[in-house]
Every structure is written in structure tokens, then in C-alpha cells.
């Protein structure tokens, strides 16, 4: 299966589809998933320092590159700066450690994972906790961090820069000040949280858009067993089920196709070999304009991820609300 792509403002191409790897830390599971994905045509792999799996990904990438099965230039590796390493003195060291783990000379797209910086423990990149709470780093601005990333971009270690979980306002402010313009933003995006406002800002700026949780992240609750995640399952949405029957595709394939047909890069995570192949098998059909509209206008509006750990942070993405849609249910940001 050949995956479509969109141009980045660097001239490189962003595949419109890739493999998410959040919550996959088991070496055997991730190795099997990556081999299945790469053999099945995936070229974009999405990871982060926070996922604690870059060393496993590095082993598999090395296996494929060193054996000549895949050329480095045909891969597209995305990784992210943890929220505890925004301070200018930490950025380069953190990126170096990630390159080493990934066994790569460069990362194709590198994102600031979260707009809210936090302090880390002396001597390692574990979050500093006081009274069981994360400690805000109130000193470091987005531009302080970005300037360090720009140096690594000029050194060709990071081939494109971007952000994740930033509000439209934060993205635009950064864009206006940056010498190396952001190439991509990665945020929650699916039929229940379509991010229309942010998408229109990205279109205006020429910033590409990546959807995390493209299937509604049905496994997200494992990360928060305290039951704070809002309910909602786009895979079970009646219109998605109807379109799956109409196109002889699965619900997951309809959700992925809906995003990629909008020019949004989708990065569903799976450790199941069958689903990994199912998910990439979405570039061989097209949804009609009418069916795209039906998916665009599903009345439910729910943000499925919450960032309660960052509430009260001075850089909390307060306007990160899709103003064109109904208010979310389940929680308050402010
Ligand atoms: P997702 O991709 O929407 O959903 C993944 C879940 O769906 C897993 O539980 C997976 O289970 C299941 N699944 C996969 N394919 C399926 C299919 N065909 N049918 C039914 N279920 C299927 O959610 P996500 O993992 O939260 O988001 C995707 C990626 O985005 C992450 O892995 C990560 O790389 C990135 N992400 C980034 C951020 C950020 O802050 N930047 C936040 C969240 C996620 P199995 O594995 O058992 O198949």
C-alpha cells in the first residue's frame, strides 16, 4: 500500500499515515508491530521521549537500514521533547540521548510535546514532584526552547520542527517569532474533536496537521486508571458503522480515511499485526463529498484527552477549544 503525503515548509514530505507507539513499552510487542508495519508499507513512526520506547524502535530501524531493506531517507521518524526538558541547557542533551536511542543521525520531525514546561529531577529527566505534584518551570518561554531547537535544525540533527498540544494562539505566536517556522502541529483530532479552528489557522500559516487519537484512543484509559478520561468511542458512532458497511471497510478504516482525505496525517497505534495492516489499507478508496460531510458534522463534540496535570500552568493552552463547535463535556480547562 502506498501512502499519500503532503509537503512540509522545509521541502520534505510528511506521510499522511504512520504508526503511533504511545503505551507500547514491551520489547517483543513493539518489535513485532514495527516489523509488521515496515513490511506493510509504513514509513512514518511516531514516538516521544515520554513513551520510553525509542531504544526499541532504534533497534528495529537499525535492523532495516543496515540490512538495506529500507533506506534511511525513505523513513519519516517523529519524536518529541519532554515537558521536563524545555530549559535551554537541557534541549540539546535530551535530543542527543534520543538520537542515540533511535540509532539515528537525525530525526525527521521533532515536536515540543506539551506547551507547559515542568522542572526535572537533578541528574535525570524524571519529573520533579513536590507534595505529589509536578513542579512548573515558569522561567522558560516557548521561544527560549525553540531557539535551541533551531540550532539543532541548522546542525541538520532535526530536519523539521513542530509543536504538539499547543493552542492556535500559541502556535501563531511562535510562528510569528520563529526564524525556523514550525512545520507541523500534532493534536487530538477525530470526528468528535475535529479542531476546525486550529486547522484553519494551520492552513493560513502553511503548517501541516497530525491527528493523534485518530480512532478515539480506545486504549487511553489504561494510562489513567483513576477514571478521569471522558467517555466516547468514535469507532461505535452509527454513521461510521453505516459507512463501513457501505464501503466494505471497517470503522477504523473509515475514521482514518476521513482524516487523510482532509490532508491530515493520521498515526493510529496498534500492536495487532492484523490491525496494523487493516489501518494502512485506506488509500485504495475515497469517501464521497456527502459522506465526508456526514463525518464532519457528527453532532457529538468531546475532547477525549485531558491535561489536568497542567491546569494552572502559566502556559496552559487556554484557548485550545474549537470555538466553532459546542462546548466539550466532561471537564473544564480553566
Ligand atoms: P488511537 O491510535 O486512536 O487508538 C489506539 C487504540 O486503538 C489501541 O488501543 C489499539 O489497540 C486500537 N486499535 C488500533 N487499530 C484498531 C482497529 N483497526 N480497530 C479497532 N481498534 C484499533 O490512539 P492513540 O494511541 O492515543 O493515538 C495514536 C498515536 O498518537 C499514539 O500512539 C502516539 O504515537 C500519538 N499520541 C500523541 C499524543 C501527544 O500528546 N502528542 C497524545 C496521544 C497520542 P491494539 O493496539 O490492541 O490494536
UniProtKB/TrEMBL annotation:
GO terms for molecular function: oxidoreductase activity. InterPro entries: AKR (IPR020471), Aldo/ket_reductase_CS (IPR018170), NAD(P)_OxRdtase_dom_sf (IPR036812), NADP_OxRdtase_dom (IPR023210). Substrate binds at residue 113. The active site is at residue 51. Signal peptide: none annotated. The record marks 80 as: Lowers pKa of active site Tyr. It comes from the Eukaryota. Residues 18-297 form the NADP-dependent oxidoreductase domain. This is NADP-dependent oxidoreductase domain-containing protein.
Amino acid at each position: 500500500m502506498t501512502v499519500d503525503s503532503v509537503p512540509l515548509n522545509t521541502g520534505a514530505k510528511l506521510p499522511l499515515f504512520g504508526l503511533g507507539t504511545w503505551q507500547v513499552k514491551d520489547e517483543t510487542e513493539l518489535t513485532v508491530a514495527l516489523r509488521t508495519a515496515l513490511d506493510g508499507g509504513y514509513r512514518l513512526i511516531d514516538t516521544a521521549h515520554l513513551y520510553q520506547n525509542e531504544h526499541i524502535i532504534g533497534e528495529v530501524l537499525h535492523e532495516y537500514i543496515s540490512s538495506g531493506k529500507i533506506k534511511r531517507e525513505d523513513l519519516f521518524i517523529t519524536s518529541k521533547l519532554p515537558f521536563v526538558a524545555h530549559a535551554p541547557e537541557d534541549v540539546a542533551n535530551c535530543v542527543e540521548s534520543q538520537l542515540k536511542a533511535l540509532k539515528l543521525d537525525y530525526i525527521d520531525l521533532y515536536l515540543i510535546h506539551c506547551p507547559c514546561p515542568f522542572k526535572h529531577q537533578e541528574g535525570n529527566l524524571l519529573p520533579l514532584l513536590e507534595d505529589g505534584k509536578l513542579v512548573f518551570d515558569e522561567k522558560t518561554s516557548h521561544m527560549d526552547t525553540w531557539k535551541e531547537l533551531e540550532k539543532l535544525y541548522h546542525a541538520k540533527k532535526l530536519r523539521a520542527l513542530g509543536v504538539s498540544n499547543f493552542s492556535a494562539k500559541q502556535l501563531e505566536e511562535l510562528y510569528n517569532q520563529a526564524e525556523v517556522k514550525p512545520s507541523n502541529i500534532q493534536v487530538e483530532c477525530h470526528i468528535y474533536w475535529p479542531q476546525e479552528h486550529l486547522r484553519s489557522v494551520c492552513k493560513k500559516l502553511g503548517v501541516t496537521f497530525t491527528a493523534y487519537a485518530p480512532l478515539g484512543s480506545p486504549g487511553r484509559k489504561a494510562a489513567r486508571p483513576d477514571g478521569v478520561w471522558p467517555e466516547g468511542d468514535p469507532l461505535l458512532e452509527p454513521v461510521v458503522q453505516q459507512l463501513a458497511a457501505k464501503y466494505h471497510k471497517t470503522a477504523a478504516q473509515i475514521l482514518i480515511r476521513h482524516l487523510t482525505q482532509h490532508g491530515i496525517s493520521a498515526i493510529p497505534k496498534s500492536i495487532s499485526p492484523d490491525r496494523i495492516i487493516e489501518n494502512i489499507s485506506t488509500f485504495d478508496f475515497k469517501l464521497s463529498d456527502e459522506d465526508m460531510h456526514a463525518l464532519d458534522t457528527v453532532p457529538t463534540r468531546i475532547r477525549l484527552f485531558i491535561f489536568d496535570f497542567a491546569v494552572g500552568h502559566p502556559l496552559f493552552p487556554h484557548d485550545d477549544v474549537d470555538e466553532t463547535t459546542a462546548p466539550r463535556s466532561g471537564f473544564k480547562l480553566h
